[in-house]
Design brief:
The chain is built from five helices and seven strands. By secondary structure, the chain is α/β, with parallel strands linked by helices. The protein starts with a strand and ends in a 10-residue tail after the last helix.
Length: 158
Amino acid sequence: MKKKVRVVVADEGSARFYDLISLQEPLQPFDDLVDHRAHLHDRDFKSDRPGRVFDHAAAAGARRGSVGHHATGGDRRPRQHEAEQFARRIIDALEAGRRAGGFQALVLMAGPPFLGVLRAAMPAALRAVVTAEVHKDLVHEGEQAVRAHLPPDAFPLG
């Protein structure tokens, strides 16, 4: 029996899923996911700056403004958080397909930053069926470009 390979082409805002049984057959579109909030600016997610904190209390008799203060937000930007949530949606869809026996191997295609976000969200059972990762953002390319970047040695077909 031939193994079905699921190919995922994704970025922070959209993901396309294809199924493939043999390299000689065309890619079969399976599903699409879109995150409409992915291309918003950070300022569109919230209107207020992070809270401010003071390094320490002002010395007796010193002005309050003379002590150091800084924002508490860290580097958790809203767009990064949105990308992480979208990656979890993609991984949840893939995990459901793996559990249902929808595919036996997985190829991930995404730009390097988002590929790292996908990896971080991936459970070990799903990671075990990944046969290839293509570090290229091809989500806005056609099916021919996707096919051209499929590594033939990564497919356990047969």
